[in-house]
């Protein structure tokens, strides 16, 4: 267990440092997901939770919002429903000055996340002792417990979290308990936008496809001795539509990612490789579909994993600074194909 300190003071979030239990978990079982965003659709003003905001900044015209002056921790259930819908519409939302949220601690993080769906317990990552459903990222001068590779020329690795699960996550909450002075930003891409950039015949073809997503490489990373060297649940692979439909907004989004998508079902190897490489490169390169979140103390970021991709930026290695983050990851529905009747 690391013993991070901030200056001379004992580390404020020492109780949330990563722990790698040797517990073993059975396979996940399917469940019915009811998305809270549906309830907000019925409201006269589904954005009323923003009424008290001192500032709302749209990061780009159709993707990403930054909010000042709204205390997430104090929202009632209707406010939480509205948050779910607004994040589904904007893809990613950055909430500043959430000291209250941070201070309420891990039981609250868990209660908050559970409102939006069944919390996922990560098969390999570190978690605070006693809170296996709080996923941690962690890097300090000597150690990283992240899925980070050092044989590539960039640390950018676009992905949608745990897309290998049968029911991957929906609204996801992430915040940094400790962060470098500068650097360690997070990149987000709108998969609604990446899809929209493509021509209609290509979109029509992609809607007919489904792809295999795999957790095996991530598990092997841990089995090779990295990241706490623990695999608590056997890795799984699942087939998802290449274009999925959001259950609340009805919007279509591209649903492949370089980290976990391996193969397009039914295509020859070269065909699958060529199409996936084209799509991954498109996600990588299109700054017109992206935003970059610069972290500040007490910032909480929410995103909808069904319609976005993201990547860490590990550009602060040389400073040796601590970056310690917590994520609560509610699972959502099994991805809905944009093409009616596509058999999975
Ligand atoms: Fe991630």
UniProtKB/TrEMBL annotation:
GO terms for molecular function: 2-oxoglutarate-dependent dioxygenase activity; metal ion binding. Pfam families: TauD. Residues 58-329 form the TauD/TfdA-like domain. Keywords: Dioxygenase, Iron, Metal-binding, Oxidoreductase. GO terms for cellular component: cytoplasm. Belongs to the TfdA dioxygenase family. This is TauD/TfdA-like domain-containing protein. The lineage of its organism: Eukaryota, Fungi, Dikarya, Basidiomycota, Agaricomycotina.
């Amino acid at each position: 267990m690391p013993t991070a300190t901030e200056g001379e003071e004992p580390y404020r979030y020492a109780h949330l440092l990563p722990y790698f239990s040797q517990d073993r978990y059975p396979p996940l079982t399917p469940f019915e997901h009811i998305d809270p965003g549906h309830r907000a659709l019925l409201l006269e003003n589904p954005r009323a939770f923003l009424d008290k905001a001192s500032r709302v900044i749209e990061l780009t015209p159709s993707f990403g919002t930054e909010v000042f002056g709204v205390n997430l921790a104090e929202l009632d259930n209707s406010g939480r429903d509205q948050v779910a819908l607004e994040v589904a519409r904007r893809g990613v939302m950055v909430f500043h000055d959430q000291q209250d949220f941070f201070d309420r601690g891990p039981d609250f993080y868990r209660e908050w996340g559970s409102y939006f769906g069944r919390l996922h317990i990560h098969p390999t990552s570190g978690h605070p002792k006693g809170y296996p459903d709080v996923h941690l990222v962690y890097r300090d001068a000597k150690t990283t417990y992240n899925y980070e590779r050092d044989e590539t020329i960039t640390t950018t690795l676009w992905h949608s979290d745990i897309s290998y699960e049968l029911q991957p996550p929906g609204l996801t909450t992430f915040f940094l308990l400790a962060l470098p002075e500068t650097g360690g930003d997070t990149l987000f891409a709108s998969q609604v936008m990446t899809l929209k950039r493509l021509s209609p015949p290509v979109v029509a073809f992609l809607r007919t496809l489904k792809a295999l997503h795999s957790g095996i490489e991530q598990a092997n990373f841990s089995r090779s001795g990295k990241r706490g060297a623990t695999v608590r649940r056997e890795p799984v692979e699942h087939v998802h539509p290449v274009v999925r439909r959001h259950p609340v907004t009805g919007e279509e989004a591209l649903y492949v990612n370089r980290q976990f998508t391996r193969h397009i079902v039914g295509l020859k190897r070269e065909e699958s490789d060529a199409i996936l490489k084209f799509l991954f490169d498109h996600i990588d390169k299109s700054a017109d579909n992206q935003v970059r979140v610069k972290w500040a103390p007490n910032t909480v970021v929410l995103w909808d994993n069904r319609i976005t991709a993201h990547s860490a930026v590990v550009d602060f290695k040389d400073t040796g600074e601590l970056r310690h983050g917590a994520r609560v990851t509610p699972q959502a529905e099994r991805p809905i194909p944009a093409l009616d009747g596509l058999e999975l």
